[in-house]
């Protein structure tokens, strides 16, 4: 016969309630024993009936299990307390950072010329001084970058000139090597003409003493 689904509510009939308690108590104690044996678990089970009668089961010493439970809950509560303190510190730090960011944003708007209608003369002078310092740093950095760029261009120019000289020499030497004997003789004559020294002298003749 199929068992019907039991509604989860208090059994009003005292006799039925006592019978159900006895059956389920024994089943619960049996399951606790089986779990402790099969899984090598430390289990302690305490049951008080409606009349105040105690039923218990423990796979080991009941008192040691209770002490272990109390220690665990105490450590867990301490851990939770530490976590709450840490969380509170994070909230305070976040609030401080938000305030600091708002202050920086307000100062930034002042440097941009916004919200300065109610600034005093001293505040305006301070803003002007900060802008002058910032402008000086910007110009200094700009000059440095410009100088670096000029140096790079000069180095590039030098490299191109050297490559141009090498290319010119290559164009002069290679045709000479690959030319005919007649052309080589022509090149030699040109070289000799370039190296000829004459005794021609322009000016008054030297007098013999």
Automatic annotation (TrEMBL):
Signal peptide (UniProt feature, chain positions) = none
> Where found in the cell?
Nucleus
A single GO cellular-component term on record? nucleus
Show the GO MF annotations: DNA-binding transcription factor activity; protein dimerization activity; RNA polymerase II transcription regulatory region sequence-specific DNA binding
Keyword presence, Transport: no
What UniProt keywords apply to this chain's record, in alphabetical order? Coiled coil, DNA-binding, Flowering, Nucleus, Transcription, Transcription regulation
* UniProt source species: Arabidopsis thaliana x Arabidopsis arenosa
For this protein, the parts annotated as crossing the membrane are none
Domain (K-box) spans 87-177
Please state what the protein is called: Transcription factor K-box
Q: Enumerate the spans annotated as MADS-box domain.
A: 1-61
Name a biological process GO annotation: flower development
């Amino acid at each position: 016969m199929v068992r019907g689904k039991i509604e989860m509510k208090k059994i009003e009939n005292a006799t039925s309630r006592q019978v159900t308690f006895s059956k389920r108590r024994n089943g619960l104690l049996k399951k606790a024993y089986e779990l402790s044996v099969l899984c090598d678990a430390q289990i302690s089970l305490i049951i008080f009936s409606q009349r105040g009668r105690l039923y218990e089961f423990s796979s080991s010493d009941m008192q040691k299990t209770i002490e272990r439970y109390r220690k665990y809950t105490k450590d867990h509560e301490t851990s939770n307390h530490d976590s709450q303190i840490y969380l509170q510190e994070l909230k305070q730090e976040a609030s401080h950072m938000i305030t600091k960011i708002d202050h920086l944003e307000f100062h930034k708007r002042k440097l941009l010329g916004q919200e300065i209608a109610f600034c005093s003369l001293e505040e305006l002078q301070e803003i002007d001084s900060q802008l002058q310092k910032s402008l000086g740093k910007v110009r200094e950095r700009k000059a440095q970058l410009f100088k670096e760029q000029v140096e790079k261009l000069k180095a590039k120019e030098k490299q191109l000139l050297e490559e141009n000289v090498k290319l010119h020499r290559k164009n002069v030497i290679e045709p000479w090597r690959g030319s005919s004997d007649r052309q080589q003789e022509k090149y030699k004559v040109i070289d000799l003409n370039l190296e000829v020294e004459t005794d021609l002298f322009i000016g008054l003749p030297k007098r013999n003493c």
